[in-house]
Design brief:
single chain, about 350 residues, alpha+beta, Arc Repressor Mutant, subunit A, BirA Bifunctional Protein, domain 2, SH3 type barrels, 3 domains, five-stranded antiparallel beta sheet, 10 helices, binds biotin
Amino acid sequence: MSTKEKILSILNSDSLKNDFISGEELASCCQVSRAAVHKAISALREQGFLIEAVTNKGYKLESVPDRIDSDFIEKEILKCGEKCEVLAFDEIDSTNLEAKRQTADKELNRVLFVAGRQTAGRGRMGRTFVSPANSGVYFSLVYKPVAGIKNPAFLTAAAAVAVSRAIKSLYGEDCKIKWVNDVFLNGKKICGILTEGVTNFETGTIDVAIVGIGINVRNSGFDEELSKVAGSVEEIIAGEGKTVPKVSRNQIVSEVISNLLKIYDFYFADDKQEIKRTMDEYRKRSLLTGLEVCVNPIAGLEGKIYKAKVLDVTDEAELLVLTEDGIQKKLFSGEVSLKSSNFANQN
Ligand code: BTN
């Protein structure tokens, strides 16, 4: 860790409780001179961190930079040993749409499209994904494995695990996952995932995956209806009376994508142990396991809505259910809602 990183982590630490810390203390914690502390503070300010300095009190972190910064994200991902080209937009219609447009023009792999706001954010089943400015972060990863994609559900499930890991490491909070693509914190949806594929018409295989992830970070400003089922990470943590760690959207994206690329690398190298580890974590966080649900198969594939009990989630990310007729089924797509409260219309 560099002095700058050490100072940032001290200023942002829970134990400081958003209070001041003197330059002398910082110098002693980092075992550097006061001048080095001053230099690191200047560098952090240049990066956009707002750090208050008061005589006889010291330094206090006011806010972290929050404009989407492609260089920062690329470097952070690289630090975790992964490579990814990052293209950032303050505003765009939809990062999934932009990824598709660019994939049609040229061959892309490991390219990430990130936006601070979407004007036409897309959800599953033709729904919209509310994506206001200064609130969430919206990003789509283009991933093109050599051998094509046989099981898109796993890619989505892996994204839900990657988001949960990021929320745990950055905020210390444990998320739940609702099969297959929604991440929940304290009963509210904080993240939606939409995985789309680019199919090769000659071979019939899915060549490229576009994994779109939207995370509600703060200031959700959702209307009354949406607020019942969805929320933002910071508002939910604050609502529990806890201190909200200051985390930038750039850090969130970097952490999620570093985690996700690692899982994909293992998956496409057929590392069974890591695949199982990922899915064990998914199962541990599964919101539906053991519950009675309504299954709404995608129209045209399987017919009408039926009730079932969720038994488990398989290593291939299928939902294992037991129907009322006592038949076990493995679902690889479709809509599942809880019988008591309908989760289908979220965000
Ligand atoms: C859902 O909850 O139904 C899925 C929502 C997926 C939203 C993300 S935000 C980034 C990417 N771009 C989009 O238009 N959608 C996905």
